[in-house]
Amino acid sequence: MSQIVDQFNRHVEYLRLSVTDRCDFRCVYCMSEDPEFLPRDHVLSLEELSWVAQAFTELGVKKIRLTGGEPLVRTDCEQLVKLLGDLPGLDDLSMTTNGSRLSKMAASLKQNGLKRLNISLDTLNPELFTQLTRNGKLERVVAGIDAAIAAGFTKLKINAVILRGQNDHEVIDLVNFCRERSLDIAFIEEMPLGVIDERKRSRHCSSAEVRQIIEQQYQLIPSSKRTGGPARYYKMPDSDTHIGFISPHSNNFCHECNRVRVTVEGRLLLCLGNENSVDLKAIVREHPGDIDRLKTAILEGIKRKPKEHHFGHQDEVQILRFMNATGG
């Protein structure tokens, strides 16, 4: 049982650890078109990342997901996977990636101890893919997905953000893509981070709308599948593919939140929709190797974890971090 317990008696067992704010894509819902990346000395080093992960696992965290930006643009990411894969008590080491570099790296990531992969894929149209990512190549991502399957990853999930008027017509195509490869898929409502304008507000597509599209072709049966995250899963009678919905707008799941994030700058982010945070980088740099001091800061910080976020459509969202600086 995790020792990290907030004031609402929620046990934190899941850490999302951002390793970089950099990415080889510029997805429209994740970052600005011309982002300013952090100076390298503002980013946690390999050793600092491993200390933070060790502190959390010693406090009872069982699951760590590596995020970015795009984690695989960081040249020492494979080495980090090996370090974290050897941590006692860590049951599940996973990664969220855009898949563009998996063709070359999937096999070594599996060998180094990575258990699961979530791969972002919002469209199967090459032109639209380049438009949504601003510079990505669909064929590289599909090749990366197939390389991950060939490398022996059995717990692969596709993440898709559906935007009204842009890719909402491809929901069934994405489901069929996953059915053909025995992959799971999670449809995610766009997170209201960064600067929200009316153009973005009008493109929101709810989980209920996506589910309605799917049910026109496939029967969805509630599933008991849980991955430690906020997705609600369904299955289909004729497939082993599970379909999940992550709904920060329409289905607040804060009451069972079991996770925190550490940003690329080493800030312990207590809620995705709240600015409460703890500066862990200052501790690891002023007191390198002092794991007890780091654990104390984590336990003190978790007392400020808020009860819930307040994402909505009516009021201007105040969180001005883009997703690439937040950790997915």
Word description of this protein:
The chain has ten helices and twelve strands. The chain is of the alpha/beta class. It has a twelve-stranded mixed β-sheet with strand order 7-8-9-6-5-4-3-2-1-10-11-12. α1 links the parallel β1 and β2 (63-67). α1 crosses α10 (291-301) and α3 packs parallel to α5 (138-150). The protein starts with 13 loop residues before the first strand and ends in a 27-residue tail after the last helix.
Defining key terms:
globular, single chain, twelve-stranded mixed β-sheet, 328 residues, alpha/beta
Secondary-structure topology with pairs:
Blueprint: E1 14-18, H1 46-58, E2 63-67, H2 77-85, E3 92-97, H3 102-111, E4 116-120, H4 126-133, H5 138-150, E5 156-161, H6 171-181, E6 184-188, H7 198-201, H8 207-215, E7 221-222, E8 232-236, E9 239-246, E10 259-262, E11 267-269, E12 277-279, H9 280-286, H10 291-301
Parallel strand pairs: 1-2, 1-10, 2-3, 3-4, 4-5, 5-6, 6-9
Antiparallel strand pairs: 7-8, 8-9, 10-11, 11-12
Helix pairs in contact: 1-2, 1-10, 3-5
